[in-house]
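As noted in the main text, all predictions were made from sequence alone. Below is one such record, for non-reducing end alpha-L-arabinofuranosidase.
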Amino acid sequence: MKNIRKYVAIACLAMQGSVPVLAQDKTFTVQVDQPIAPINQNMWGIFFEDINMGADGGIYAELIKNRSFEFFRPFMGWKNLGPVAEANYLILNRQSDHESNPRFLRVNTTKGTSKPIGLQNEGFRGMGVKTGVGYEFSVMYRQKTSGVSLRVELVDTLGNVLGKGMLIPSNTGTGWHSQSMTFTSNKTDAKAKLNIWFEGQGEIDLDMISLFPTDTWKGRKKGLRADMVQALADLKPGFLRFPGGCIVEGFDLSQRFQWKKTVGAIEDRQLIINRWNFEFGHRLTPDYFQTFGLGFYEYFLLAEDIGAAPLPILNCGMACQFNTGELVPLEELDPYVQDALDLIEFANGAVTTKWGKLRADMGHPEPFNLKMLGVGNENWGPQYIERLAVFQKALKAQHPEIEIVASSGTDPEGERFVYLDKELRAMGIDIIDEHYYRSPDWFLNNAKRYDNYDRQGPKVFAGEYASHSKNMFRSEYRNNWEAALSEAAFLTGLERNAAVVQLASYAPLFAHIDGWQWTPDLIWVDNLKTYLTPSYYVQKLYSTNKGTHVLPLLSEGQAVAGQDDCYASAVLDKERDELIIKLANTSATEKSIVFDIRGVKKLNGEAIHIVLQHDDPLAINEVAKAPLVLPQERKFPIKGSKISVLAKAQSFNVIKIKL
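Prediction:
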């Protein structure tokens, strides 16, 4: 009751205009007319990796699994329908003619019974289909003579037909042809399947059997899942880092990410196994492959769509050092370096160049305005420095305008980190990529991490971070409030040190509730919906309130970084003439904070107070349930230069004040 009376008293005084400073209040000063440093307008961004079914089965809207029969087991994802005889289906391999997509299916309906035969595809843990939405079925085929038609139907788990259509292949001869048709679903179902019945008598070859919803992002054919992209767009990210992550390195170099195999015609992109298929024994995912329907062109296009600067990461000639540690000899590194140079041409080159022409042929003659390029991911040791030096020399000679992002290894401290940090600074690398997956306590204790970093040296990219709470009872949903609040507190330190920290992104980004390998994750999805975690809302409050300049925010002359369990930062948005204060109260008690705003004559008008809070540190926004942790916003009048804010226990607060 005492706290309630205090809150009411403060609220009432705020309504009257000025608020007296109570004895128990903490006072923080904000000096509006003394900006410390400009803030990189691309600072808060997105890290994307195809983990947890983030691409295939996730943001890439293809509903058919193993559409070209290129998985390790060619029929994985498919099931026979009807009285199928042995000779009805054959998998043929044209390796010498089509190395990137060698397999195709030959269907012969003249063998065995006269009854219809078919195939069923299970999708990625089922297919999410929605009432009234159109679904485009397409296929590549080859037939000498007409005779076989494809009756296609979506069915629910009970076998009820949700939508259907007929595709009658119209071309004959020796070449391959593409054909499509669209039908509509009459029901919403998260676990639908697709049946393909082969009617008539004859033989036909099939490849790239595909099903896409028509309500993709921006309505692009065979595009991305709209709700997942919208969640990214709502963050207003400054950059998009892609395609990872550990998949850049590969288990060995044969499984590394090669960007040139992910562009051009979809049917010519070479599928590989996803390393998260087998990486974790407790979460083996034998049907996890990369089809590269979401390839480098689509990544660049996605970045452009959501207003983010592209930040691709390339293999540096090293496989994952936790797996094989396989290396390319230095004398054989040239093809890897050339891949980097060619990628810059693909992104920025004129349409008269080889790779610029390919970009234009794919539908984007304008350059993508690439300005940053990562070389290596979580690599370490002298062997990394040796290879990075080769890349640096070539890239700076031909493209001095491109900033190089380099790895500081897997951890934010220790022998590896110290060695790399020293070497990278000596090399004059533009941006050092630091990663930290740590406990909430680590994040709280490291809010001052960058306070003493060299302002004249390389900039920092907080490339992968997430607070890993150990006090969670369901491991797959570990994005609890305790973890998110510790991240919010830590990020005040990143913001306060924007002179050093130029980029920051949470990781991993997406996780499918039925196909995850790693937790926690920023955004959870099922086949139909997107679910936003408390950590997501923390990231959004930073990225949508980034300001243009860092301001001093002090308590007794010191940065607020853990004193009395408070963490705070302040920024000025010169474009909006707005002061934005961020305050994390990590204690179990509420606190009354007075902000003494200096450097302005007076304040009049309204302030906005946004609160993200929950009393239970283990609170989560559980999939398929109403979220527990959501931002709440209120407005209050202000007058004078001192503003009192009641910070609830275990809360993250954003206060926005017009100047």
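The CA atoms of residues 79 and 120 lie 5 Å apart. Residues 1-23 have pLDDT under 50 and may be disordered. These features were considered when defining construct boundaries for the mutagenesis experiments described in Section 2.9.
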